[in-house]
Design a protein that fits this description.
heterodimer, A: about 300 residues, mainly alpha, MetI-like fold, 15 helices, flat, B: about 300 residues, 14 helices, about 0% strand
Chain lengths: ~300, ~300
């Protein structure tokens, strides 16, 4: 299945489709359109609801397009929506998420790429043992390791702090990223590495001057994988940060699920879209690289 | 740098130093953390962990707690249905998309985008769509079918199916992509040979192609199972475990015991049980994958 990523991206093969309106085609495309609708409708409902006023929501149905488009719910979700006692909107959560995601992505990729490089090109005795443990670690339910990590972070004074959460994300990103980089570096021609050795380059020299410049696509895949993964995280955010530093997903959940008084569905949906916007944008822009990232998770070690 | 030669000692030194984060993560966090939790699951830890042995008491208490039994039952229902449906849907979609269709990219993009969204977002959208007052139920009623009742999120007996719908929406795209990759990895000669022999398409899929895709199925299975056992955010966002305790799951039990009920012993016993559940699937898989066959 190592060739999975490559073949998955080649697109359809063989001859063009036959007659346009055969029974087979009507059935085939009919099914696909119905399926596509099931997947697309929630996004549509989110957008439509977020652009309506509350009176219209109470009258109409959730699928009808807004009669009067209003952006007020978006503004409110961003800057005024309440979580419990505070009414500061999602903006704080957004910036927390940015401050969590950026360093976590950079650090986890830096560590994992060097690890993968060491495993691919500078294999030392026992390296495979650690790597195997690492890969198995990816299957351990997070709940098993939560409390020991709480203790460790408390010992070094980072529990409840953004820095602690960054460490946690770097740790849990390591299995999949190391696998990704190790497989990629192994696939590069060995002659390159040998030639650089002959020219006198060392561990870091080869990494920075040969491997890194040659592997920009795989770094991009890693960035996509990590940004979406870390942005979407909820559990670690809730466990390892306090209310001041909650990431956006936690803030969103608090806004929607702790409402007192009148529930403002349009604000809730606006908040939901805003939170989903970052990974969605990455997904729609990156397309195949995103697919390559998730397929990497399925490639065996 | 200048001193570096392909001599074992020097060559390994930098690589070893560079691999320290990996070694620490593997040994301290993954092995150490897991062993720690398992060991403390046999103690009487409450607010703080302490080494006062109580044998299997925590496990006995766990399995006689109603909420845990509900959690396990939910996980079983959700897990088995997710497994079956996600594979059926994922494979059928992949097979349809593999028919050399037009707009393949568009359709694939639409099916996979939910996977880019977080479980929190997923849960909240479906909470809204399944809202009995404004959502699906009211729309079908407005269409004239006034007796129509579909209110999973407020009906304890079927609440977990409401979560299932959302989970399938989010996760089936991933399986589709993996299955599609598996289908594309099958040699076209196989199809030609089957056609020459006059084997019907569905039989070719069932008896030739699917068995050939065994590795893809197994890897996907392991991925999906790991994801199912971890399910937490979706529940918190969509139902909060409710109505009542109707949609509680083990991961939520662990979190609540650990950080709200100050009952660490229960949390450790519950998470160890989750670990065992995953191990039942992962260990046989690992033995098949790595069992002597090939070494790094």
């Amino acid at each position: 299945m190592a060739e999975l990523t490559a073949t998955a991206l080649d697109g359809p093969r063989g001859t063009k489709p036959r007659k346009t309106f055969s029974r087979r085609n009507i059935l085939l495309y009919g099914t696909l359109i119905v399926v596509a609708l099931y997947y697309a409708v929630p996004l549509y409902v989110m957008v439509v609801t977020s652009l309506k006023g509350m009176p219209e929501i109470r009258l109409g149905n959730i699928f009808s397009p807004p009669m009067e488009i209003t952006f007020a719910p978006w503004v409110k979700a961003w800057s005024e929506a309440c979580t419990g006692l505070k009414c500061e909107g999602l903006s704080i959560g957004f910036w927390n998420s940015v401050r969590i995601t950026v360093p976590s992505v950079l650090i986890s990729i830096a560590i994992a790429s060097v690890n993968g490089y060491a495993l691919a090109n500078w294999k030392f005795k026992g390296a495979d043992v650690f790597f195997t443990i690492l890969i198995f670690g990816a299957f351990i339910p997070y709940q098993v390791m939560l409390y020991p990590i709480v203790i460790m972070l408390r010992e070094i004074g980072l529990y409840g702090d953004l820095g602690g959460l960054v460490i946690v994300h770097s740790i849990f990103g390591m299995p999949i990223l190391t696998l990704l980089f190790r497989n990629y570096f192994t696939s590069l021609p060995e002659e390159l590495f040998k030639a650089a050795r002959v020219d006198g380059a060392g561990f870091w020299g080869i990494y920075f001057r040969v491997m890194l410049p040659m592997s920009i696509p795989i770094y991009t895949v890693a960035v996509i994988l990590q940004v979406t993964g870390i942005w979407n995280d909820f559990l670690f955010g809730v466990v390892f940060t306090g209310p001041e530093a909650y990431p956006m997903t936690v803030a969103l959940n608090n806004i929607v699920n702790s409402t007192q008084g009148v529930v403002e569905y349009n604000v809730n949906m606006a908040a939901t879209i805003i939170t989903g916007l970052v990974p969605l944008t990455i997904y729609f822009v990156s397309g195949r690289l995103f697919v390559r990232g998730i397929a990497a998770g399925a490639v065996k070690g | 740098m200048a001193t570096e030669r392909p001599i074992q000692l020097f060559r390994n030194k930098t690589a070893k130093i560079a691999a320290i984060p990996m070694i620490l993560t593997a040994l301290v966090v993954f092995v150490g953390g897991t062993v720690w939790t398992v060991v403390y699951s046999f103690t009487k830890s409450g607010l703080l962990p302490r080494l006062k042995w109580v044998g299997l008491d925590q496990y006995e208490r766990l399995w006689s707690t109603n909420r845990w039994m509900v959690s396990i039952e939910n996980l079983a229902i959700y897990g088995i249905l997710t497994l079956v449906l996600v594979f059926v849907i994922g494979f059928l979609l992949a097979a349809l998309i593999d028919q050399k269709i037009r707009f393949e990219n568009t359709i694939r993009t639409v099916i996979l985008y939910p996977y880019a969204l977080s479980f929190v977002v997923t849960g909240l959208v479906w909470q809204w769509i399944l809202n009995p007052q404004f959502g699906l139920q009211s729309i079908v009623r407005d269409l004239g079918w006034t007796g129509f009742t579909f209110d999973p999120l407020y009906t304890p007996s079927i609440a977990i199916y409401g979560v299932l719908i959302a989970g399938l929406w989010q996760g089936s795209g991933l399986v589709m992509v993996l299955m599609l990759a598996g289908l594309r990895g099958i040699d076209q000669e196989v199809w030609k040979a089957a056609r020459i022999d006059g084997i019907p398409t569905w039989k070719t899929y069932l008896f030739i192609v699917i068995p050939m895709m065994r590795p893809v199925f197994i890897t996907t299975l392991v991925l999906v199972v790991t994801g199912i056992v971890r399910i937490y955010d979706l529940i918190v966002a969509q139902t909060g475990g409710g109505p009542g305790i109707a949609t509680e799951v083990p991961a939520k039990y662990v979190y609540d015991m650990m950080f709200q009920a100050a009952n660490l012993g229960q949390a450790f016993a519950a998470s160890t049980t989750m670990l065992l559940t995953v191990a039942i699937f992962v260990i046989p898989w690992a033995m098949m994958e790595f069992g002597g066959k090939r070494r790094g």
